[in-house]
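Input record (one chain):
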Amino acid sequence: MIYTKAKLKDGAVVCSPITAKNTYTYCAVCGKEIQIDLRELILAKAEDPYDTDVNCAECSAKMMHRGNIDIDAVIRLADVCKDIGYGMELHGLCEDFEVDDIRALAPEEYELFVDELLDKISEVRHAG
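The corresponding structure, as predicted from the sequence alone:
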């Protein structure tokens, strides 16, 4: 068992086991006290769990919020991907979506297309 040990002003010693239910930190963005599970930090491979910034759910959601993805944004992203050498991945994804041209994507496919493209690029970058 891992526990904390604190000596009080009156000399008494208080020991408390570290559990998923009694471990807290402050949100690195808004300062709100949040409960954390140290196992999640370990599984996330935090380099230093004692000095890792953690965000509350609300601040994380705000950080993850994306603006609307329209066809112009998809085209700009595709152009950049081609320019930096990911044309094959882009071509393969167009085949997966059964389109010859990105402009043929349906609006409800834009976000999924972008997510898939970024995933493919990430796979390639980490594979080699």
